[in-house]
Specification:
Elements lengths: L2 H16 L9 E6 L8 E5 L3 E8 H9 L6 E3 L1 H7 L6 E7 L7 H15 L3 E16 L7 E3 L7 E2 L6 E7 H8 L7 E3 L6 E7 L21 H9 L14 H9 L1 E17 L7
Parallel strand pairs: 4-12, 6-10
Antiparallel strand pairs: 1-5, 2-3, 3-5, 6-12, 7-11, 8-9, 9-11
Length: about 280
Amino acid sequence: MTRRTVCLSIFIAGLAAGQTSAPPAFDVVSVKRAPPGKPGGRYQFLPGGRFLATNVPLDFLIQSMYGLRNYQVVGAPSMMAIIADGDSARYDIQATAADPSATEAQMKEMVKTLLADRFQFIAHRETRDLPVYALMPAKSGIKVTLDAEHARPVGMGPVTQGWLEGRTSMQPFIQMLSRSVDRPIIDRTGYTGDFDYRLTWTPDGPVAQAGDGAAGTCPASWDALRQRLRRLLGPEPAPVNCPSLFTAIQEQMGLKLDPQKAPIEVLVIDHVEKPSEN
């Protein structure tokens, strides 16, 4: 091999190393604004490499594709106003991958490319000190039954507004509980095994207006809670005096949600635009 051939080979290899592969993308994409005032909304990963989103808010789509909660998506007010849920930020999206065997994980990456192409979405990840709740033992002591040896099967019972019951480990329990508060929850309990739990509190919304048969009491069972929900249809539901979530978790489980600050990963929106319809 001549010196010229060697130099040419090194040059070509350098070019190849400097090239980055194109991000995964759908072959066919349609983005349209959803009709205003339409209720509900969902997205689906369908067989044949198809992605379908109906009446989906842009902020929810971003959170879902990046695996984040709403408090983890941040940006300048002008950027946040564009993605905020509302009639002008709900979309109907249809997309098909060239590979019909594309997996859900692969299609999620394709949706990220769709956001970049059609919404000019640019963002980066940072770690910031944000308000959190630390879940820790209360002064009265933890009142759940720990099963460190996993002697019984794990399962989650019915979950609805103001009611959680089942058997699980701490992290899945925290994930469920975090849906009812406005900030992340971090584990400071020290529990590593499975445990039984039952938690009832006053939720936000109409469920808090209905009774379970005795005014001023909380439901004592799932059947009682279903009776409470049925009474929502009645003209004069009995009032309920359930404690707040913060009081309930101390009284019923011996745990507390302590306001603190902790480093949390966030997605910072650098740029986003409303798309032009195709």
